């Protein structure tokens, strides 16, 4: 039986075009059920004009991404937080 969705790793390439950090490694918290996990664990559906990522716990939409030739629309209203790890562990201006 073939799955009707991809895992959140399918977002790595499209989100890399927008963010400097690897967002698939970021940790999101679902606004509906509170489940926390890496973006790579989201269930991604790609049979629409864009990508729709749903929570693996409650199936609510966490993220939507739609692209046009010159723009990208990113809807994160289904995520309470998105914690993105920084490569060198420092903040702006090299502050820890």
Describe this structure in words.
The chain has 1 helix and 8 strands. The chain is mainly beta and 96 residues long. A hairpin with a 5-residue loop joins strand 2 (27-30) and strand 3. It has a 5-stranded antiparallel β-sheet with strand order 1-4-5-6-7, with no helix packed on it. Strands 3-2-8 form a 3-stranded antiparallel β-sheet, with no helix packed on it.
- Shape estimate: globular
Strand order of the largest sheet: 1-4-5-6-7
* Span between termini: 48 Å
Specify the biggest β-sheet. 5 strands, antiparallel
Strand residue percentage? 25-35%
Secondary-structure element pattern, one letter each? EHEEEEEEE
Number of DSSP helical runs: 1
In a nutshell, what does this entry contain?
With 96 residues, this protein is mainly beta.
Name some characteristics of this structure.
96 residues, 1 helix, 5-stranded antiparallel β-sheet, 8 strands, globular
Write the layout of secondary structure elements.
Elements: E1 6-7, H1 12-16, E2 27-30, E3 36-38, E4 43-45, E5 51-54, E6 61-67, E7 72-75, E8 79-83
Antiparallel strand pairs: 1-4, 2-3, 2-8, 4-5, 5-6, 6-7
